[in-house]
Structure formats: structure tokens, C-alpha cells
């Protein structure tokens, strides 16, 4: 038997198992519409493949430049943008949020009742900017469907497409109670949208303009935006919804999608469209310590700080989380400033390295960076919710099995 080809210390025959696994277990049985996977190591793309249909109804194949809704994979970009302003001395992480959002000075914590008749109590301390970056703010998401507070989020349609502006979102949140006193627990939430608002306040630029000037153009990310331009619409994938019986139905038609026009507020928590190649450029800049092709978007020490576990007493998510949903398995993971951070490999029950960091999106997209192995993995598909299948953990097994040095 011939020796396997090795590139950047990875066995290509073993990486080919990824495509076989996705085809046999997800694409052929009709569980997923499409799958695009990229594996990079030591600064080079080692293996990349795009499979399936980006638009099942129109029988259009997914390509290397297909545009995907990355939803919460927007969050690390927003977090980097805010920390760029931190590097310029514009704020401190322990600054109270109300220093920059005066209407939030008297935020209260939920005690009982339903909207609009809440009974509240004062927080133990004010919310800080670090609380926003680490999801320890006490804010929530309407789709959590867990408490009377997130029921108010749903009633007020705060999760994105109600025509609300970013300023309007901040105003509505100023009148709602927090789930818990800031810093006392972890809850996946609209906090990163608030970080996007702070980018606007601190920079004096709309969020889309700031991203373009300070992240996308420096990194050569020409296909990442909040609104799909008309001349790129032919590359925009359809999005699907999981159905019982491991099938799916159309959730968002690319030709009538709200992503093709200005809609609601610019969501730093989940509003971006991107490609596999564009997001790789962002991830590679992070893997390089904040720089790609001579363009530095964040300082090395700042990024090292962001990749630390910022949960109290270096604990992991299960011990502080109030909700069951997030874009990462909880066990063995802490949380930094905008990323999940792997803290205990054995407890996570998936292969990896201490300090591995990354995040995912609602439609099944994900990325992670392993700084020990100098490894990047990015996966794109378009199936809501992201918890439909355990592909993220399976990818870790398949990719790490290909490491030979």
C-alpha cells in the first residue's frame, strides 16, 4: 500500500474521511443540504472541500465562494472590533456599561412577575463591558424560551427583524430587567449586539462601516457583509430548518431573504454573511496572533488575553450557566472575550488541546483554532438549529485523527 501524502504534518487520506463521512451520513440521506469544510495548519490550507447543494429547490451546487449566513460567528468579529478600541485606550474592561449608555444606569434584576409588570431588585454591582464580552451581563435571548424575561424579549421582538434600530434595541433593553446580577452567572444573550452598539458609540462610525475599514478591508475579506449585494446574490445559499425524521424544509429563500436588503439593526451578535474563504482569512489572522499578510487587526498580547478563560475562578460553563443553549458543548469549556475556550480536554469528551478557541452559528456553521497544533477548522452549512446533529464534535475527531507530527 502506498504511503499517504502528508501536508503540514497531516495525512490527506485521513482528511478525506471528512468528505466521506459527510456524504454518507448527512448529504446522501438528506439530513443536510450542503457542507463546506476547510482545514489549515501552519498557515496553509491543507484540505478543503465543498459538497451538496446551496439551493436544493433550484438544484444549485455549493461552491468554494458560496455565501452563508454565519449568524453567531459574527460575535468573534464584533469582539475583536471592540477590543481594537480597547487597545486605543477608549475604555477599560471594568468600566460600567452605563458610562457609555447612560439610560442603563438603573438596570434592575428580575425577581418575579411578567412583562410589563415586573418586580425587580437592584444588582449587586453595575454591569461592566467585560460582562458583555463574556455573556455574564444578565441579558438574554428571546429564543431561549426559558424565563419571563426572555418572553418579554419575544413579545418586543428584540432578536433582530422587527425594524428596530440598534439605538431602539438599547432603549428597549434599558427598561427590561436582567436575568441575574452581572458577573454572577453565564447566559448566552444579546450582549454581543450591545458590544456592536458600543463599537458605534466609541468609534463614531456605523458598525458596518467600522467592520469594513478595520477588519474586512485590511484582511482582504471581500465577501463579508450585513446585506448581500445584488451582484453577489447568485452565490447566496438557501437556509433550511430541521424537520422531524431527519429531514429539512426551506427556512429562508435567498431570492426573497431579508439579508438581501437593509433590515432591522446591524447585529454584531448574528448579522453577517460570509464565505468559507473569507472567514478563513479572519481565523488565520487570529491563529497568527492578530496579523495576516502584513495587516494587523489586533495585538498579540490583547488576543492572548481574549483567549484566557474569564469565568470566575477559572471554572467551566456547566458550573455557571443558567441556560441550556449555546454554540458550544459546555463540558470542559470556559469562556473568554468573545470565544469559547477549551479548558479540560478529558471532561469535554472530544479530542483537542487546552486553549482551543472558537464559536459557531445558528445555521450549523462553526470554527475552531487549536494554538497548540497551529490548526484551524472551519465548517459551513445552512441548517437551523445548529444542535440538530453533533457534526462539530465529529469534525474534531476526524481532523485530529489526521495529525501525524
TrEMBL record:
Annotated ranges, domain Beta-lactamase-related: 22-386
Source organism (scientific name): Halopseudomonas bauzanensis
Family annotation (SUPFAM superfamilies): beta-lactamase/transpeptidase-like
Official protein name in the record: Beta-lactamase family protein
Lineage: Bacteria, Pseudomonadati, Pseudomonadota, Gammaproteobacteria, Pseudomonadales
Amino acid at each position: 500500500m502506498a504511503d499517504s501524502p502528508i501536508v503540514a504534518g497531516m495525512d490527506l487520506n485521513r482528511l478525506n474521511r471528512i468528505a466521506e463521512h459527510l456524504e454518507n451520513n448527512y448529504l446522501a440521506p438528506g439530513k443536510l443540504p450542503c457542507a463546506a469544510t476547510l482545514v489549515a495548519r501552519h498557515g496553509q490550507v491543507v484540505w478543503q472541500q465543498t459538497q451538496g447543494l446551496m439551493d436544493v429547490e433550484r438544484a444549485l451546487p455549493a461552491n468554494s465562494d458560496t455565501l452563508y449566513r454565519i449568524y453567531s460567528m459574527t460575535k468573534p468579529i464584533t469582539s475583536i472590533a471592540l477590543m481594537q478600541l480597547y487597545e486605543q485606550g477608549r475604555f477599560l474592561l471594568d468600566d460600567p456599561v452605563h458610562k457609555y449608555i447612560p439610560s442603563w444606569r438603573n438596570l434592575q434584576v428580575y425577581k418575579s412577575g411578567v412583562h410589563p409588570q415586573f418586580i425587580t431588585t437592584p444588582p449587586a454591582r453595575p454591569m461592566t463591558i467585560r460582562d458583555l464580552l463574556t455573556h455574564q451581563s444578565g441579558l438574554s435571548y428571546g429564543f431561549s424560551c426559558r424565563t419571563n424575561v426572555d418572553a418579554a424579549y419575544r413579545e418586543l421582538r428584540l432578536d433582530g427583524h422587527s425594524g428596530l434600530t440598534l439605538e431602539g434595541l438599547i432603549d428597549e433593553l434599558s427598561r427590561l430587567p436582567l436575568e441575574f446580577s452581572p458577573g454572577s452567572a453565564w447566559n448566552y444573550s444579546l450582549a454581543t449586539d450591545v458590544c456592536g452598539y458600543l463599537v458605534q458609540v466609541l468609534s463614531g462610525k456605523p458598525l458596518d462601516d467600522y467592520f469594513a475599514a478595520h477588519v474586512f478591508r485590511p484582511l482582504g475579506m471581500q465577501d463579508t457583509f450585513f446585506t448581500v449585494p445584488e451582484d453577489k446574490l447568485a452565490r447566496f445559499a438557501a437556509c433550511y430548518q430541521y424537520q422531524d425524521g431527519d429531514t429539512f424544509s426551506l427556512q429562508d429563500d435567498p431570492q426573497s431573504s431579508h439579508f438581501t436588503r437593509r433590515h432591522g439593526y446591524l447585529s454584531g451578535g448574528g448579522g453577517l454573511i460570509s464565505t468559507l474563504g473569507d472567514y478563513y482569512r479572519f481565523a488565520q489572522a487570529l491563529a497568527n496572533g492578530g496579523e495576516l499578510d502584513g495587516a494587523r487587526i489586533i495585538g498579540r498580547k490583547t488576543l492572548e488575553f481574549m483567549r484566557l478563560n474569564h469565568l470566575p475562578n477559572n471554572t467551566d460553563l456547566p458550573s455557571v450557566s443558567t441556560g441550556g443553549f449555546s454554540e458550544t458543548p459546555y463540558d470542559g469549556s470556559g469562556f473568554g472575550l468573545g470565544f469559547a475556550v477549551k479548558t479540560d480536554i478529558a471532561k469535554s469528551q472530544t479530542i483537542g488541546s487546552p486553549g482551543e478557541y472558537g464559536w459557531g452559528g445558528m445555521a450549523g456553521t462553526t470554527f475552531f483554532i487549536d494554538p497548540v497544533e497551529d490548526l484551524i477548522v472551519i465548517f459551513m452549512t445552512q441548517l437551523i438549529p445548529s444542535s440538530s446533529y453533533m457534526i462539530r464534535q465529529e469534525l474534531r475527531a476526524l481532523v485530529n485523527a489526521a495529525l501525524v507530527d
